[in-house]
Amino acid sequence: MKIFKNKTVCLGLFLSILLFIFGCSSDEGDTVKVEANDAAPIKIGVLASLTGGLESYGKQSVRGFELGLDYATDGTLEVEGRKIEFIVEDTETKAEVAVQKATKLLEEDKVDFLVGSSSSGDTLAVLPLAEEYEKIMVVEPAAADSITGAEFNKYIFRTARNSSQDAVAGAAAIVKKGVKIATLAPDYSFGQDGVAAFKEAAIKLGGDIIHEEYVDPAATDFTSNIQKIIDQKPDYLYVIWAGSNTPWNQIMDMKVQEKGIKISTGVADIATLPTMKPLVGMEGFTVYYHELPDNKVNTWLVEEHKKKFNGDVPDLFTPGGMSAALAIVEAVKKTEGNTDADKLIETMEGMSFESPKGTMTFRPEDHQALQSLYAVKLENREGLDYPVPVLVRELTPEETAPPIRNN
Predict the structure, then answer these.
(1) What is the CATH number of domain 164-286+374-395?
(2) pLDDT tens for residues 338-352?
(3) DSSP string spanning 230-292?
């Protein structure tokens, strides 16, 4: 640092600095605003299954996230004077790869936020990294209860619904006092947590869970599993499933419904609807179908998605990806561009924001987004070769609020 000995030069320089500062000040105060090009960008690392068993879910989430940033920033990809950059990494639906990619995003790319992932297993493996690096992770679309339950840490916020929210909706559709129910689910955290939550909700409504059947998530042959369920003679078979290897065809082949067992489930993405032809008339629930929510955000999403993706409509997890982006931008607006984790946590706890599914609110106790789900009935639609979910009623965020499980 150079020291000026000439007093006249020092005084002149000092006055010049003062003039510059006051010349740049706003009328409302003497804070100098930094131009967007001079501010550090906000970096977001998105973890998604772009290959593997949940590939379609990952691609839906990424599409929604991109559109969410466009909507939230009016197409500028800028918030509070800071440009937004996002980097997408493929977890391959493998927990060890998810950890590697998350570590790369945190250490090399220096991201301010993590988003993801498609698999609950991948997500659970990454949660400790968010805490270690003190970065906010917005979980979408992973649904395992343990994410905001036993494995929760304060850096985790989830826009995705959790298994308990699914369970409340699923139980409300079928459970009456004394009804006997068997369950079929994949044998990992998503399925296990889902059954546990459904069982809790069903018992509260007077139902009786008489059998729980778990199968390999990669299974394609469900014969022995379905036979065990038939042998138990339940009134209902409640199925929890994710992925393209659905059990519906074998359920039909084994004439489960003809044996007096009614089927109920959550209606998944559009790709699975053709396989659900045997279930027309079934009453269940869904997280999202593009015709169900009636609000301006969803209207924009449907229209823009069609424009950008050759007429395709948003699918099951597209609005979730959008919601994650909307939540991040809303939080950064409220902090006036500050991405310090502690400041963001303080801001996001209890924060409400608009999404394609209406108003979502991060519950302060466990950072789970309270949100609407939809009770539906499967009906045939003229011109389509698959049944579609038709709204029975919207289940409000208050109705679907899950138990707090993070102690």
Answers:
(1) 3.40.50.2300
(2) 999 999 999 999 999
(3) HHH--SEEEE---SS--SHHHHHHTTTGGGTPEEEEEE--GGGGGGGGGGTT-EEEES--TTS
